[in-house]
Amino acid sequence: QSALTQPASVSGSPGQSITISCTGTSSDIGAHQLVSWYQKHPGRAPKVIIHEVTKRPSGVSSRFSASKSGSTAFLTISGLQSDDEADYYCSSYAGTNTFLVFGGGTKVTVL
Amino acid sequence: EVQLLESGGGLVQTGGSLRLSCAASGFTFSSHGMSWVRQAPGKGLEWVSAVSPSGSRTPYADSVKGRFTISRDNSRNRLYLQMHSLRPEDTATYYCAKDFYMGHYFDYWGQGILVTVSS
Questions:
Q1: Does B50 sit within 8 Å of A100, measured CB to CB?
Q2: pLDDT in tens, A30-66
Q3: Is residue B80 predicted with pLDDT exceeding 80?
């Protein structure tokens, strides 16, 4: 059982927007501004697409955006494209004892 | 260009040991925390352990605490993961990841190395 809870799958048609939720607790997402999102295609290494809740690394499409409310973080992919079909993982710093937790991952399917 | 190259994976029996290495290049290794993250077949990502730039701080996931030891050699730009008392549930692809800042996020990842623990 993962520490952060994500929906197992989300789907959308090309051009649509989808949102993935990531629910944690007051010890991780709720306590720190250190939520990250990673995109992972099969057979490839994960790639950071969002860090520190809302920041997008250089080179990452502006179609990816994120936010946080309380202990839940959200990733939105707008203008869905076929290449967005991948697994998406959230993670959060969780303090000095637990240190870091991941969500169980969400499989995004482009219909 | 940042490169992280894992090695040392393979097949091991339950109860056995294995040592993973990660050769880093393209950045000032001694200035960054490093982590190991794994992904079991068909499962999600699981953070395993991290090490601070100096090596003084080494948190572990509960699932590996007492069995795995993370370490680093800043003179050789290498990260290690010594794994003992391996279990079938440790079977996974293990990724070496560079921390932008310890606990913040992983800005670079290796391609991963497969560890298979047979029962």
A1: yes
A2: 999 999 999 999 999 999 999 999 999 999 999 999 9
A3: yes
pLDDT score for B102: 81
In chain A, the percentage of residues whose pLDDT exceeds 70 is 98
Q: If pLDDT is split at 50, 70 and 90, which confidence band does B2 have?
A: very high
Q: How far is the alpha carbon of B44 from chain A, nearest alpha carbon, in Å?
A: 5
The Cα of A74 is separated from the nearest Cα of chain B by a number of Å equal to 16
Chain A residues near residue B104 by CB distance under 8 angstroms: 34, 36, 51-52, 93
Sort strands B45-51 and B34-39 into parallel, antiparallel or unpaired.
antiparallel
Rounded to 10 degrees, what is the CA torsion of A60, B45, B30, B74?
-140
Report pLDDT for A2.
59
Buried b (16+ CB within 10 A) or exposed e, A10-46: bebeeeeebebbbbbbebbbbebebbbbbbbeeeebb
The verdict on a CB contact (< 8 Å) between B103 and A93 is yes
- Read out DSSP for B37-88? EEE-TTS-EEEEEEE-TTS----B-TTTTTTEEEEEETTTTEEEEEE-S--G
Q: In the numeric block, which tokens belong to residue B2?
A: 């940042």
